[in-house]
Structures
1.
Amino acid sequence: MTSPATITIDEAKSVVIVKENGSERRLPMDSAEAFSAVSRAWLRCGWDTKYVYSFSWLGRPIIQLPEDLIRIQEVIYSVKPDVIVETGVAHGGSLIFHASLCRAIGKGRVIGIDIEIRPHNRRAIAEHELRRYITTIEGSSTHPQVAGLVRSMIDPGETVLVILDSNHTKAHVLGELEVYAPLVTKGSYIVACDGIMAQVKGAPRSGDDWDWNNPTEAAREFVDRHQDFVIEEPAFPFNEGAVRERVTYWPGAFLKRVA
Ligand SMILES: C[S@@+](CC[C@H](N)C(=O)[O-])C[C@H]1O[C@@H](n2cnc3c(N)ncnc32)[C@H](O)[C@@H]1O
């Protein structure tokens, strides 16, 4: 976990001043370091203001940071999965987002799992223009029957990508990783979303144990036990700027199957 910093943005002098752990850094505004410091504060401010609860995709609310959506789009376009499995449906926006990519690419379908799909959300997904790309399953993502149902919907040889965005406790994400990682094909990913929790501990709507009880910790523990996966953030397919790090709610989230 990172310690709190005092950040001063001096636009007139084009400098960002970061005071942290008794030292001061003066970062030129055109540096990746300045961008990183401001982004860290922006992420915290966005958490406190519930910024991610202000977006929709093709008519459905989607609870994601826009950069994370652009980045997962880059990965989906590169992997071109036959099946995208996502745990955590909520209003259905992310299912519709993935379905829209499947339609644009001309390949793929989406399986969404949620412990509770509320009737109005179920109806909205069932009536959506992209409904033919989507199957939903109601139940806990780690329940053996749910996992078995998902497995039965995937044909041998199909390329599979998995996104975990349901219950974000370390134990639950570890359970999901054990259940769904075997479905992921070599070169594809299982994504453990929302490790931002560690960075926002102490903020409103955060838990006292979020520094360790989060998806990033689950991902780390999982790769320690499973040599066929590595934590590897996919490289940006295009980057003519100075920034090399993503501004994300999903730090350390991408587990790539390498064997
Ligand atoms: C963060 S929301 C999902 C957001 C959605 N992926 C999006 O981008 O809009 C988390 C969802 O996980 C669901 N959930 C919680 N525990 C679960 C479990 N054990 N199994 C499956 N879904 C669960 C909740 O009902 C909630 O709808």
Note: The chain has a mean pLDDT of 97.
2.
Amino acid sequence: MADPTIEAWTRANAAYTDERAEQSWAAEEVRWGIWELPESELAALPDVTGKDVIELGCGTAYFGAWLKKAGAARVVGVDPTPAQLETARRCNEKFGLGLEFVEAFAEDVPLPDTSFDLAVSEYGASIWADPYKWIPEAARLLRPGGELVFLRNSTLFILCSPDEDVPAIETLQRPQFGIHSFQWPDSGVEYHLSHGDWIRLLRANGFEVLDLIEIQAPADAETHQFYDYVTAEWARKWPAEEIWRARLRPRSS
Ligand SMILES: C[S@@+](CC[C@H](N)C(=O)[O-])C[C@H]1O[C@@H](n2cnc3c(N)ncnc32)[C@H](O)[C@@H]1O
């Protein structure tokens, strides 16, 4: 039987045209989240010049493309959905950036240990893979001193969301204690942890937390036409999205 995650992302791929994917690949600067805040403002990433980068849950891989343009030596995109990877490959061909792609779930990546300097995820593994499995994989794939940077919905946003078709509101909708896997009525399984659980999980896998950037919608931002599950007004008051940055401690022999 087909995997429901892959089926869901094959449908999402059909809705997200090559034209939109190409527009994203064409951007010159790394931009973050719903309000496309520039990396020059958020400083979420280390210098990627000459680095080997893996993107976990790359989708159409525009984020990896931005990192290659920013000077990364090698970018490997990992994703389980063939349709997403086909779009990524077409864009890669068109833009001639030389990304590599691997069809796999982020919980089990068929690549050798200690192969990368930076692991990233932009709404890929960061919300769609089980953190108790993909964080250990990221640690295995990184070289000592390597960094992990990922963007996800904030836990507070999830706690305040009545359901996936309605914007977040100003009252808590569900308990935080015990939060882990999470299924909206019409979508695949997402994964969300409390901040305490994120910190413990990262530390248990050899990471030190360097930063947690809570994204605020700019003063002049309007609610996004497509990503309308949060209003700009809500996101000016509370973080709807967050970027985690962590570094793998050197392994003791
Ligand atoms: C929102 S998209 C990725 C974001 C990417 N930056 C983009 O917009 O194209 C989410 C991706 O996560 C992938 N995905 C779902 N479950 C996954 C898992 N367990 N491991 C890695 N990727 C997964 C899906 O196939 C999909 O391509």
Note: The first strand starts at residue 31 and ends at 32.
